[in-house]
């Protein structure tokens, strides 16, 4: 019976809905539900239906009740002393017939971010509701302030922090960013600029009221020192953890923005974390594309995309900060602040509405992040391509957070790559030689015919399960003056030590 009624009403089983019997008048709680639906994902209110756990009872309303309820509903909805905003049109409120009985249906769409918060009464801090699987709940003042902040069309992250000078920015971070920028944009006119001018082009700094330069919010978060960032964002915290099943071991590795031995800004955090996130993404050693070794595949780009998006979409006034947890092949990336588009738009892609668009733009200049809103597409496509478990997004309205849960594994498909395993097998002498060598000798053997070796290549050549093992081997060879490191971040390579 329940399924038949839902089908007749064209409502899916998992659709947000609220059934109210409404025999004694328009229920007072209808306004909490109106606010919660408007501030979350929308939903449908059905008056004249009693809902049980697994069934409905259609009690119905009289014609007189329906007329009165409609009049009372519109009257209250248009009273600014009772409800902050009317986001409904006439067709959203209509009577419907189920069997031989009449009910009143009210469809509440999700409010545009410019209209949120939708609240009851005149005090948004006491009348703003949201909804999750447990029902309607009163929003915290912090969540309400976040909704007001999200109303702005002008990006909040370009706001100039008048009280700061450029001394709050980390010069090593700026230098590292410019090196990558120049590698990716050879001949770009910005490469010839002094740091101050370069940062102005990025909108990381701007002139303050006194005519001198101050960082913008984006600039402080991206290039600043954590100590100064927390002066503006007291809850700012970036945390990366590698955990295991052994309860006696708290974590295998951890880095966070308050350590004090590095800047603590979001760009350095991104650079530190991205190389560790994908340690368990194993790429078969034999794969080549156009004659070149394939080190990076779509999955690597998607992981970077996910981390950059979390950093660009975060509400840095929110609690608990950014949290990235890696446990074996499981990875979760969580940021404060809910999405600013509907879930349908979010999954469809192409309609990005980042909370910090200038931060996303600065990532984009170093080929990270998708301004066009296709980041979710990239993640979903990359995982589907490998036939891995579908990524899961958890939108916690109550905690005002978005969490992405991923599982990684052995790469099984690389578009456009050729498998050279047959060629290796054909050269039986070379294959036998490699098999009879120890791990250090394999690296030396490889470098005799190649200019350099990466951590990923060493991992596969030496048959390590993760990059951590290969990294230890390479570090040991550096200590023994056999190798030296060149480049940084994803461009890191290992070559023979010229002095050896």
Automatic annotation (TrEMBL):
Residues 13-132 form the Schlafen AlbA-2 domain. InterPro entries: RecG_C_sf, Schlafen_AlbA_2_dom, Schlafen_AlbA_2_dom_sf, WH-like_DNA-bd_sf. It comes from the Bacteria. Pfam families: HATPase_c_4, SLFN_AlbA_2. This is Putative DNA binding domain-containing protein. It comes from Wujia chipingensis.
């Amino acid at each position: 019976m329940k399924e038949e009624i839902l089908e007749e009403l064209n409502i899916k089983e998992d659709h947000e809905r609220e059934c109210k019997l409404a025999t004694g008048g328009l229920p007072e709680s209808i306004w909490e539900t109106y606010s919660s639906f408007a501030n979350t994902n929308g939903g449908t209110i059905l008056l004249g239906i009693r809902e049980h756990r697994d069934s409905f009872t259609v009690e119905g309303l009289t014609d007189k009740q329906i007329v009165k309820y409609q009049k009372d509903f519109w009257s209250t909805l248009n009273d600014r002393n009772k409800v902050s905003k009317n986001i409904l049109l006439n067709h959203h409120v209509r009577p419907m017939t189920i069997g031989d009985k009449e009910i009143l249906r009210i469809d509440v769409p999700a409010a545009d971010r410019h209209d949120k918060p939708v609240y009851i009464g005149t005090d948004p801090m006491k009348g703003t509701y949201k909804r999750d699987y447990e029902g309607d709940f009163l929003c915290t003042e912090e969540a309400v302030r976040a909704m007001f902040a999200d109303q702005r069309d002008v990006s909040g992250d370009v706001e100039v922090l008048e009280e700061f000078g450029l001394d709050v920015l980390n010069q090593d971070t700026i230098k590292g960013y410019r090196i990558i920028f120049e590698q990716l944009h050879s001949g770009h006119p910005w490469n010839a600029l002094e740091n101050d001018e370069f940062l102005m082009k990025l909108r990381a700094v701007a002139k303050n009221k006194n005519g001198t330069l101050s960082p913008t919010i984006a600039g402080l978060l991206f290039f600043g020192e954590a100590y100064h960032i927390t002066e503006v964002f007291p809850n700012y915290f970036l945390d990366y953890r590698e955990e295991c099943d052994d309860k006696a071991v708290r974590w295998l590795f951890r880095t966070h923005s308050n350590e004090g031995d590095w800047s603590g800004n979001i760009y350095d955090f991104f650079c530190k974390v991205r190389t560790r996130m994908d340690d368990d993404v194993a790429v078969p050693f034999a794969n080549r594309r156009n004659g070149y070794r394939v080190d990076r595949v779509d999955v690597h780009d998607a992981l970077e995309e996910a981390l950059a998006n979390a950093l660009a979409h975060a509400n840095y006034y929110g609690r608990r900060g950014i949290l990235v947890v890696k446990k074996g092949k499981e990875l979760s990336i969580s940021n404060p602040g809910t999405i600013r588009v509907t879930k349908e738009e979010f999954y469809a892609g192409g309609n990005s509405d980042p909370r910090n668009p200038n931060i996303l733009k600065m990532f984009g200049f170093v080929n990270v992040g998708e301004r066009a809103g296709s980041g979710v597409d990239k993640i979903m496509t990359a995982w589907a391509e490998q036939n891995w478990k579908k990524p899961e997004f958890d939108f916690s309205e109550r905690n005002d957070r978005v969490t992405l849960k991923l599982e990684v594994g052995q790469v099984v498909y690389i578009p456009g790559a050729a498998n050279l395993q047959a060629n290796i097998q054909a050269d039986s002498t070379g294959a036998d030689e490699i098999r009879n060598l120890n791990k250090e000798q394999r690296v030396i053997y490889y470098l005799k015919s190649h200019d350099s070796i990466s951590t990923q290549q060493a991992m596969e050549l030496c048959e390590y399960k993760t990059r951590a093992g290969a990294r230890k081997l390479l570090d040991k060879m550096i200590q023994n003056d056999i190798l030296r490191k060149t480049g940084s971040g994803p461009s890191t390579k290992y070559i023979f030590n010229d002095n050896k």
